[in-house]
Amino acid sequence: MDGKSTDIKEFLEFVYSFYKTMKEQRVQLVYEGEITHQITKAFTSLTETNMELDAESQSTQKKVFHVMVECLQNVGKHADCLECTDSRKDGRGTFILCKGNDEYTITTGNIVNKIKIPEMVEVLEKINSLDKEGLKQLYKQQIKEGRLSNKGGAGLGFIDIAKKTGNPLYYNFLSINEEFSFFVLTSVISRYND
Amino acid sequence: MEVIKIVGTDDTPSVTLDVANEIFEISGRSLPEDVAAFYEPILDWLERYSEEASGKTAFNFKLVYFNTASSKMILDILLKLEEMYESGKEVLVRWHYPEDDEDMQEAGEEYADIVEVPFEQISYSMD
């Protein structure tokens, strides 16, 4: 067997193991690339259809929709890139939706400049330290004082996700090089709230 | 004043601003690609309307979903209505929410806390 067919064989095995991993992790949707408004619409619409077929409660459907939009828009608006070119811009990242027996997990991963990390950690830790009432107060404060950024963000996304899910924001920053890290954020939505 | 009538889509709300027929309403879903561009004409219209409003302004919000970027613009609309109320105009905000949607009900309560304007919460059935 020559080198090329060995490569292809390995690739086909990779596809099968990738498929198995997705099944094990109950991945419903996975994506890597630019996050645009069209992508956000397509993913939320597809997920809504699936949840409708699964007879998911209205409350869960709305929460999943809500968190998906905020997470995808966060990446689309805030992700940095390692080597920006005309064809490779900011606003790229990975998106993974998993459906477990008791919950949906919505995960985004994107590159951030390390300069931003201390401020992000401060915000995320503050949100995770607050209860429902505290989150409400923080939301009201931010909506009153915050201004719409030039990217169209209101600085409310993380707070809103925590408010809607009632769960902490799970996150990590994995160092890529001196300048950049990979930011992973996972939100958990219980399927049975009532 | 000219009538604003925007037909909603799956990511933008329906908007009717019609002084002659006393209809002031925003309904549906709001996650426009460019929130500022979508809401700017509405805020401009309200700015002009606030100067000449003579009768009662009952503004209806009947949203089923809005993203956080839109929530900021909704507050801007409410602040405009608050300004009108404070200058002596008759203003009422009616916040409609689906009866089983606690999050939308809560969103109304939060806005009612922030702005000083008569605020009515109305639940409706989706059936």
Describe this structure in words.
The complex is a heterodimer of chains A (194) and B (127). Chain A has 194 residues and is α+β, with helices and mostly antiparallel strands. Helix content of chain A is 49%, strand content 23%. Chain A is globular, with a radius of gyration of 18 Å. Chain B has a 6-stranded mixed beta sheet, with helices on one face. The radius of gyration of chain B is 14 Å and the shape is globular. Chain B has one domain: Transcription Regulator spoIIAA (2-Layer Sandwich). The N and C termini of chain B lie far apart (35 Å). Chain B is built from 3 helices and 6 strands. The mean pLDDT of chain B is 95. Helices cover 39% and strands 31% of the residues of chain B. In chain B, helix 1 runs parallel beside helix 2. Chain B is of the alpha/beta class. At the A-B interface, helix 2, helix 3, helix 5 and helix 6 of A face helix 2 and helix 3 of B.
Question: What are the SSEs and their pairings?
Answer:
The complex is a heterodimer of chains A (194) and B (127).
Chain A: H1 3-24, E1 27-34, H2 37-53, H3 58-78, E2 92-99, E3 103-113, H4 117-129, H5 132-145, H6 157-165, E4 170-175, E5 180-190
Antiparallel strand pairs in A: 1-2, 2-3, 3-5, 4-5
Helix pairs in contact in A: 2-3, 3-6, 5-6
Chain B: E1 4-6, E2 14-18, E3 23-30, H1 35-52, E4 57-66, H2 68-86, E5 91-98, H3 102-114, E6 119-124
Parallel strand pairs in B: 3-4, 4-5, 5-6
Antiparallel strand pairs in B: 1-2, 2-3
Q: What sort of overall outline of chain B do the alpha carbons produce when their principal axes are compared?
A: globular
Largest sheet of chain B: 6 strands, mixed
User: pLDDT below 50 for ≥5 consecutive residues: which ranges of chain B?
Assistant: none
Strand order of the largest sheet of chain A: 1-2-3-5-4
Q: How do the helices and strands follow one another from N- to C-terminus of chain B?
A: EEEHEHEHE
Q: What oligomeric assembly is this protein in?
A: heterodimer
What proportion of the residues of chain B is helical, as a percent range? 25-40%
Q: β content of chain B, as a range?
A: 25-35%
Beta-strand percent range of chain A? 15-25%
